[in-house]
Design brief:
It is found in: Cell membrane. By secondary structure, the protein is mainly alpha-helical. The chain is rod-shaped, with a radius of gyration of 16 Å. The model has no long low-confidence stretch (mean pLDDT 82).
Length: 57
């Protein structure tokens, strides 16, 4: 999922470089949403792992 966020970020940066404002803002928004979903799932996974008794690596 982090790979998708990076992909959309790169698309947004390339579109911004060429002046496509609508595409750049849409791609940046998608990348931001996917990144925060990834972070939330990562935190939930770390909490679940700690609750089950195995320390995070």
């Amino acid at each position: 999922m982090l790979g998708w966020a990076v992909t959309f970020l790169v698309i947004a940066l390339i579109a911004a470089l060429f002046g496509f404002g609508g595409i750049a803002s849409a791609s940046a928004g998608i990348a931001q949403i996917i990144f925060f979903v990834f972070i939330a799932l990562f935190v939930i996974a770390m909490i679940a792992r700690a609750i089950r008794g195995r320390p995070p690596v």
